[in-house]
Amino acid sequence: MPPNPATGSPDGPGAPAMTWWERVKFALVRPPDDDVRETKADERSVEELEAAIKRADDKERAIGLIAAPLAALIGIAVSSASIDYAKTHHQSLTVYDELTYVILGLAVLMLATAWWRKRLFLGITMALYGLAVFNLHYWGFGIPFLLAGSWYLVRAYRLQQALKRAQGGTAPARRTTTTTSAARPRPSKRYTPPT
Question: Is residue 13 part of a domain?
């Protein structure tokens, strides 16, 4: 077990104390212990993995169903603040009106994809919503949606990789031609002999 990073070094009691940056790195990314490290293989069958890929589980659905109305409320608040800003600075309001519809449309899509348990599309919709709000300089509202959307996308990717490992990782082989014309390049017609 590695020692406490605040009291000493992971190398042992005789090593010099760690700097502040080394303590932060050690707290965030610990080096793997080779003897303790275990690779937990997914023990589900191919059919179970395909079912898990097809539909989001209850936790993922609940997060999406909670995030969608919250996204609509945040969208209304952000768009009304943007419209008020545009009015005080004598800017055109049509852009912000259209932006309100786009943000509310993404919130409705988020609700629909969570309702029908579509993990990948929910992740994409949440990430797009977070990016849209983030680009309006409301970073505190946009970052959580970006993180949640990327979490959904990573979960979808990991399930696909587990399915690939469960199937044996055999991909259909590509057909290759063994003719001599495919092996050698054709001569160039723009050849200029040396002088």
Answer: no
